[in-house]
């Protein structure tokens, strides 16, 4: 996959505020786009980047469901990410954004704002139609929003472990992570990108529990010593996962704004409600949920899937909760292939 940067100017946010200059990072197949290419557009999850070979190697690559050598694959880094597209961390980088007092004065952005970035990239590349749009988790938020915004330009779509509107349950998980960030006294100081590191580690550890399941933790983190005095394996795993995100180069400010972005998900806003908005999707669609997903349970997904015209609904089996969208790639591949994406 090839890395690109697109610079645009005078971007206005849905919630208010503007940027004088905006840089969008995205990846595409190595070769240039040509009319007639089969375009596959991927939408990444909360803390992933725009290179799907990095975070979805079992789904994207030679011999996989999505092949960048045969398909023209595009993935855009979302607003506020730590991986390139303009966000709060750019207060420390001076890339031409407006002057802010601190990174916490960066404009709040929504799922809909990021979907508009997709359109800017699509137009820049000269792509008229997307043959297959795939979004999982928060990437599914962006995919749903874009499938409504772009209407006739999206031919087929797969929405995986996601929802058209943030639930109170999911919003509560976002708030407890923000509380962890705010509890770190270095977070509000905004003196450098190292601010809030311990809060970020705690927030990430919290999020991991929401991504997994009772069965998954029992399967992988059970104490092997029958005579152990204090359980420690799961605790050690939580600390490791918290530190891992920091080592990946993520910062607390990007994470904080992304958590707010999750709370913005509502495709029905100013469209007459969720049901009316989903009815606007013209793409031949599939909705996939995961049996053990506590964030986007099948009982929720099976209901809203009915509002997308002619959509097909599937459930995949997994013991690993929401993270099943990253792990159960064989099941997901079989379902996506059922879309008959190669006409």
Characterise this structure.
The protein has helices at residues 52-55, 111-125, 138-150, 168-183, 197-211, 214-220, 233-247, 252-263, 274-278, 298-304, 324-327, 329-337, and strands spanning 2-12, 18-28, 39-43, 72-76, 132-136, 156-160, 284-290, 312-316. By secondary structure, the protein is of the alpha/beta class. It folds into two domains: 2-167 and 265-337, Rossmann fold; 170-262, Rna Polymerase Sigma Factor, Chain: A (Orthogonal Bundle), CATH 1.10.1740.110. It has an eight-stranded mixed sheet, with helices on both faces.
Task: List the topology elements.
Layout: E1 2-12, E2 18-28, E3 39-43, H1 52-55, E4 72-76, H2 111-125, E5 132-136, H3 138-150, E6 156-160, H4 168-183, H5 197-211, H6 214-220, H7 233-247, H8 252-263, H9 274-278, E7 284-290, H10 298-304, E8 312-316, H11 324-327, H12 329-337
Parallel strand pairs: 3-4, 3-5, 5-6, 6-7, 7-8
Antiparallel strand pairs: 1-2, 2-4
Helix pairs in contact: 2-3, 4-5, 4-8, 5-7
- Please give the alpha-carbon distance between the first and last residues: 24 Å
Order of helices and strands: EEEHEHEHEHHHHHHEHEHH
Task: Count structural domains.
Answer: 2
How confident is the prediction overall: mean pLDDT? 94
The CATH topology of the largest domain, please?
Rossmann fold
